[in-house]
Amino acid sequence: MSEAFAVATHGLSMRYGSEPALDGVDLRVPEGAVYILIGPNGAGKSTAMKVLLNLERPHAGRAEVFGLDTASRGPEVRAQVGYVAEQHEHDYGWMTCGRLIRHAAAYYPSWDHTYAAHLVDVFGVRLNRKVGTLSKGEARRLQFVLALAHRPPLLLLDEPADGLDPVVRNRAFAQLAGHLADTPTTVVIATHHIHEVESLADHVGVLREARLVAQMTRDELRRTVVRYRLEVPEGWQPPPELRTATLRRSRAGREVQWTLVGEPDEVTARLAGAGATVRDVTPLALEEAALAFLAEEGAA
Amino acid sequence: MMQGTLHPAPRGRDVVLEQVRIVGLSLRREALVAAVVLGVVTLVIAIDIVHGRAATWFDSDEWFVIGLFSFLVPFAVWRREKRFGPAFLWTLPVDRRRLALAKVFAGWVWLMAALACFVLWQLALAVLSGVADAETVPLVAFSGATAMYLLGSALVLGLRHPLRWLLGTAGAFFLLATLNEALGRAENGMARMFAWSGALRWAIYGPYGIDTLLSSRTFQSAVENAATVWWPVTIFLWLGAGVAALWAAASRHGERRRR
Amino acid sequence: MLVNLDPNDGRPLYLQIMDEVRRAIVAGTLRAEDPLPSVRELAAELVVNPRTVSQAYQELEREGVVYVQRGQGTFVSPSVRRGAGERRRTLAREVAKRALLEARRNGLDAEELVTAIQKLAAGEVKTHE
Questions:
Q1: In a mutagenesis test of the A interface, which of C8, C39, C46, C48 is the best target, namely the one with the most A β-carbons within 10 Å?
Q2: pLDDT band at A36, cuts 50/70/90?
Q3: Do A177 and C107 make contact, defined as CB atoms within 8 angstroms?
Q4: Cβ-based contacts of C45 with chain A (< 8 Å)
Q5: Which one is the CATH code of A220-294: 1.20.58, 3.30.70, 3.10.450, 1.10.3470?
Q6: Residue B170 belongs to what domain range?
Q7: Which fold has domain C13-80?
Q8: With contact defined as beta carbons under 8 Å apart, do B7 and A150 qualify?
Q9: Nearest residue of A to residue C53 by CA position?
């Protein structure tokens, strides 16, 4: 039984000059998921989204959105997508916000005018202002309106919180949560402001140095990425089979704090078998767990 | 599965209509400038009519101005649009080559409207001035203007920095032409090297040149029989070249299909 | 109904929501037949995935704490008063579980924790006299 995927990439690879942005990435975003794509700047998150919209052509691999090949059926794919780009400057600086909204509406037969008016209200977009005169935050809010108003089955949000102050951020994500309740939507959020979207996420993907180093449900992450506080004897060596599961390790005297990936029961047994005393087992918040994946491996 | 509930892409007709609306909106400022200029010219002509010097205005040809104007309109149409890179335009659910062509078409519609207004203005003035045998822009110039518009659109769409290319090429030809003149028309190797300027002159003033294109001048040529063949062929050549260049330029923005 | 989610709580969000509902019932803020906030409302208020809220409500329905009226929303079960004692015991057990976990984390055992609790409770009684 195969799950229906809203987004599926197969060996996606993309370079900018000699710098790889994506290296053999196999994204799997199930339908209806809220998928957080985590990674430091320049890790290729934006590139992945641009490939999905066919704004960039990958050097290798392919991508599918709702089963549609993104390269050969670009317009159909884009009809299913609401996109909030990373940059906030809008091309049509000379248009008023109201005119731009009506312009976008012409391209999406599924545009909900009533909902668009409601979104304008919620996000406080001033329709008479020229787009070129908007501040970063206002431009971002306008992008939200444009992306949500046609109730697309897939939302691609690239650093959506960027440029928004905390109050507006909360309002934006609250609106997104409400939107999800009304419309069956798959959301992919690329961000490094993790804790704001933590409560919305049910899937996580970690992109580090162009590779997808982790991809799992939020529940699985919570269960398997765990910090162990150990008391170890002098000269203790960690068991070799656990080295590959290591995410983060710090040491103070005879106490070692180790973040490992794996089923806790199994890992605890192995640690105990290697001579360590497990004092504490702490599940990690999403942000900490993600940071563990991004940290240098084997840092002592 | 999603398949049954996929959102539809917009209809071609709606896309074209919206482009016509938005291009018209984006050219408002330019249209205002043109109206002001025309107003000033009207005033000057009116003064001349009153002083009985009207005839001088109606025996010159504006074909060059119309040709240049049509060639430059695409620069105005695409000035407010980011053509290269991840622009909003390319994130829309429309085939990108078709969308570029739709915008070009929208600009053409407004160009034709502007030219029609210009012709009417000319006729009105001619009637008012009472000048006999006033030569106005021949209707056939519309096709010539279209060809120039297509070429200009191809330039703007196809190149990141069309102005640089344009000025650079013009500058180079000017330099070559000057050198050609300076060296005289001697049959030495040096002079033949600068014959490129001659090619440009042929492109403009030759039997299939732009001059013929815009003014259908050949109809007024002395040698009627031989000359009437030139104009339809010229139109065909230039329109064909325009369409081909535009198609190539628009394809540069087309969807990135499988390699 | 005020719901607070603790970001540092390692438990799945839907369990936290369920606990909050039970807490409200035990405290009397939510009474029998009272409506719960709609999935949409609660999701927007807490900024959580609506599916999480749905999951919480469904689990509560399975436990008989709430019932769903189609088209109307989710309501607290009428039998809630009768099960109050049971609910209090469940809640107490949840709180104790967390306290015990915290204690173990700090290297304390259950006995030490119980002694500390008893001392504190006695101290509270004294200050209230």
A1: C48
A2: very high
A3: no
A4: 174
A5: 3.30.70
A6: 11-251
A7: Arc Repressor Mutant, subunit A (1.10.10)
A8: yes
A9: A181
Q: What is the pLDDT of residue B219?
A: 39
Query: Which residues, in sequence order, are CB contacts of C58 under 8 Å at separation 6+?
Result: none
B121 at the A interface (CB within 8 A)?
A: no
CATH 3.30.70 in chain A, residue ranges = 220-294
Please name the fold of domain A5-209: Rossmann fold (3.40.50)
Give residue A121's pLDDT: 95
Nearest CA in chain C to A281: C105
> Which residues of C lie inside 8 Å of A (Cβ-Cβ)?
5, 7-8, 10, 12-13, 39-40, 43-52, 104-105, 107
* Virtual torsion, Cα A54, A58, A60, A65, nearest 10 deg: -30
The pLDDT confidence band at residue A17, using thresholds 50, 70 and 90, is confident
What is the per-residue pLDDT for A1? 36
Q: Which residue would you say has higher pLDDT here, A265 or B150? A: B150
In a domain, B5, yes or no: no
- The reported pLDDT for the residue numbered A106 is 96
Question: Would B162 be classed as within a structural domain?
Answer: yes
Q: Tell me whether residue B258 is in a domain.
A: no
Question: Tell me: the pLDDT tens digits for A242-271?
Answer: 766 677 777 777 788 888 888 888 888 888
A202 Cα to chain C: minimum distance (Å): 8
Q: What is the DSSP string of A26-83?
A: --EEETT-EEEEE--TTSSHHHHHHHHTTSS--SEEEEEETTEETTTSHHHHHHTEEE
Q: Average of pLDDT values for C36-56?
A: 92
Residue B256 lies in a domain: no
End-to-end CA gap in chain A? 43
Token duo for residue C40:
């949409």
Contacts of A280 in chain C (CB under 8 A): 104-105
Chain C hits for A178, CB-CB cut-off 8 Å, are: 40, 43-44
* Residues C90 and C48 sit within 8 Å (Cβ to Cβ): no
| Cross-chain Cβ contact A175/C7 below 8 Å | no
Number of domains in chain B: 1
Which residue from A49, A43, A53 is spatially nearest to A22, judged by alpha carbons? A43
Q: What is the pLDDT of residues A116-139, one digit of tens each?
A: 999 999 999 999 999 999 999 999
Q: pLDDT of C49-99, one tens digit each?
A: 999 999 999 999 998 889 988 888 889 888 766 566 777 787 788 888 888
